[in-house]
Write a structure and sequence with these properties.
single chain, alpha/beta, Rossmann fold, seven-stranded mixed β-sheet, two-stranded antiparallel ribbon, 7 helices, 29% helix
Length: 241
């Protein structure tokens, strides 16, 4: 699923001592000072999309769940996608390529972003605390090499990531072979499930990368949604926001 690289890990100063006082116990000057204080800013997160649709772009449910959890966490989100042609276009009713049809990754990703999207070429690490890459085969076909955690394995040698289990287990983990691709790139694969949401995300503290299996597992949608929530919470913790 989503490989997350926290780009900046600065921490804010401690909150004002006034926050520990009950409203009724504050003096007028204390209340005035509290009202003047600026609210704690949320993490600045870049969400990188790779099209629109699981078989040739971004997995839509994963992207939506990430946006929901980032909103709940008070993050400031900016959405990006590369302005390049898709590798190919899939007819999702048939699971087969649509012959003679071509689409643009940025244009397709704008469907998920409701039009508020920026060319990936303009993304600057200095402007964001973290970046999140939802899964979907577009991460393989339009961004780099394979399902999203493999992006991290390709870029960061020795990184720890998860795509769930390493055996198919009767079809419950149909993409389990991805774990071997991760190991082949010199990364460490960590086995994780999705049913217990707070255990579904793996955190590589050294590299500041958080991953979760999501749709790598054939399971109920709410389990996937909760696992993504665990990942997003860990990302926001690493950002220090």
């Amino acid at each position: 699923m989503a490989a997350v690289r926290t780009l900046v890990a600065s921490r804010l100063a401690a909150v004002s001592a006034f926050a520990s006082l009950s409203p009724g116990s504050r003096t007028p000057s204390q209340r005035a000072a509290l009202h003047r204080s600026a609210p704690r800013p949320g993490a600045r997160v870049a969400l990188v999309l790779s099209g629109c649709g699981v078989f040739d772009g971004t997995e839509i449910h994963e992207a939506s769940a990430i946006l929901v959890h980032l909103s709940r966490g008070g993050a400031e989100v900016q959405i990006f996608a590369p302005d390049v042609p898709q590798m190919h276009v899939i007819d999702h009713t048939k699971g087969q390529p649509s012959e003679g049809e071509s689409r643009n990754v940025l244009t397709e990703s704008a469907r998920i972003a409701r039009g508020k999207i920026t060319d990936l070429a303009k993304l600057s690490a200095a402007n964001h605390d973290a970046a999140i890459f939802p899964g979907g085969f577009g991460a393989a076909k339009n961004l780099l090499c394979c399902i999203a955690p493999v992006l991290a394995a390709k870029v960061l040698r020795g990184v720890e990531v998860t795509v769930g289990h390493e055996q198919e287990e009767g079809g419950r983990w149909p993409y389990a072979g991805t774990a071997e691709a991760i190991k082949a790139l010199g990364a460490k694969h960590c086995v994780k499930g999705v049913a217990i949401s707070f255990l579904a995300a793996h955190v590589d503290q050294k590299n500041k990368v958080v991953t979760t299996p999501a749709f790598m597992c054939e399971t109920a949608l709410h389990h996937i949604h909760d696992g993504i929530g665990a990942m997003v919470r860990k990302v926001l913790e690493l950002s220090g926001k």
